[in-house]
Amino acid sequence: MNDHSPPEGMSAQSPRRVLSPHLQVYRLPLNAWISLLHRITGLLWCLGLLGATGLLWVVAAGQGWPAAQAALGSPWGRVASILAIYALWFHWASGLRHLLFDFGFGFAAPVVRVGAWAVPWVALLGTGLLWSWMG
Amino acid sequence: MDGVNGGEDVGARLAPSRAAVSHWLGQRLSAALLLVLVPWLMFSLGSAGGMELDDLRQWIGRPSHALGLALFFLAAWYHAALGLEVVVQDYVRPESLSAVLVLGVRLAAVVGAVAAVGAVIWIVAGMQ
Amino acid sequence: MVQFRLPREARPVTGREHAAPERAARPRRFVVYRFDPDTGGPPRLDTFVLDLDDCGPMVLDALLKIKNEMDATLSFRRSCREGICGSCAMNINGRNTLACTRRIDAYPGEIRVLPLPHRPVIRDLITDLSQFYRQYAVVEPWLQERTPPPPDRERLQRPADRARLVGLEECILCACCSTSCPSYWWNEARFLGPAALLAAYRWIEDSRDEATAQRLDALDDAYRLYRCHTIMNCTEACPKGLDPARAIAGVKRLLALRKL
Ligand code: SF4
Ligand code: SF4
Ligand code: FES
How many CB pairs lie under 8 A apart between chains B and C? Predict the structure, then answer.
């Protein structure tokens, strides 16, 4: 934090300061929400990656696959899978947008807004596509 | 009174670390790889839950598939470690704790990547 | 851990209500953040009801009217009242902007006026920006040259080179951008923030400057530059229509290209 001591020559008592409101009052633009969700979906997939590595071990070891299958096929397993797939597509689409920014594309204000709107819908599209692909 | 440059330091005037571009570049390069590998995997293995164990191993055992899968796990663990590192540095204080956590994250990612690639090799070896 | 919540003593409480004048034709509520360092209490949110028929068009006009006619203790910075000094930056209805260039009728209802976010408050709407200025100083925002200047004239610049500075050199250092940036909130001690980074890029892009390599070296740091995650609150906030997010992406790109 800052040095709040008063300049020399002023009273030795340092004035009382408080922190101004921030997250509590800021009206975050859509882009900031997408950015936050990019982070959350990324964190979720750190867990997902752990799970995927575990499943790969189950397949390699040849033991416990029926149990894993049962867990994935249970109602909760299905819900979790669909959410995970949606989160992955979300992170994918938002990440693609970030890559474009890094190359210097898409900084014009309308493009930023349309792009931010597109991310959740692209993720939905990807999830639906995968769904129909799997039949 | 202190001039603009004087007074208590802003940490911003610590010497720059000079390793930060590599981190950023690594994040983007692994992202570019995953951009392709993730949809491929989702469409190939999305229905793995319903597959028989032998069919699944058959699929993974194909050289091109095994290579793609290993590449995916390497890139993904690397990407995850870099991303977690950023989150840790953003939110965890004091910095000494955040440095320890960053080391832990890297270690965990190496373990994860080795485990995943090891499993792929195991499956391929088991096919022979 | 980073503190996401406000410390208890910093949480504002509901303050006084100053009613509208008799027979106000167009009453409008202004909720204004108040903090007095000399009394022990927490910050307050005071309400002032103004008659817009008897008030200038900008939010700053309303603040001046409150100060002149309702509560002379209200403190805020202002100077030019035309968007060029950067003094009157504050948070209006949840977004950082300049009070002097914001029309009151651009907002539908109640107008909430708070100080710039996540800064130490000195009094009311006045925050301590000394850290912000020190960060500006870190990027050494002046022309640096190695070769001696020509003896008979200034250092000239081709029009095309000058054009590269458009959108970079108009910054008025109002701090709307930096104090809108969540990364800056959590890492203000080491992240330079969008305003300082925009200034850094302005000198990196200057064809006459000969310290480009050193400037890039100084920014190759996990905290100074790379705390920016392209959230783009900064660009949304800039009252001069500048794009710090794009400038920061430019710095990152130059660093990456140099590395490859
Ligand atoms: S683009 Fe970077 S500097 Fe601007 S608000 Fe986002 S994180 Fe902050
Ligand atoms: S870039 Fe814009 S918002 Fe930031 S300090 Fe400069 S004028 Fe203000
Ligand atoms: S008073 Fe100068 S910018 Fe508003």
Answer: 83
Domain ranges of chain C: 8-127, 130-258
Give the residue ranges of DSSP H helices in chain C. 59-65, 130-138, 159-163, 182-187, 194-204, 212-219, 233-237, 244-259
Complex ipTM value: 0.92
CA–CA distance from C44 to each of B60, C33, C129, C138 (Å)? 64, 6, 21, 35
Domain spans, chain B: 10-127
Which CATH number does C8-127 carry? 3.10.20.30
CATH number at B10-127: 1.20.1300.10
Mutation probe of ligand 1 site: the residue of C95, C139, C183, C235 with most atoms within 8 A of C-beta: C183
Taken in order of first residue, the domains within chain A and their CATH numbers are 30-134 (1.20.1300.10)
Mean pLDDT by 10 residues, chain A (135 residues): 45 79 96 96 96 94 90 91 95 96 90 93 94 79
A40 C-alpha to ligand 2 centroid (Å): 29
Q: What is the mean pLDDT of residues B68-75?
A: 96
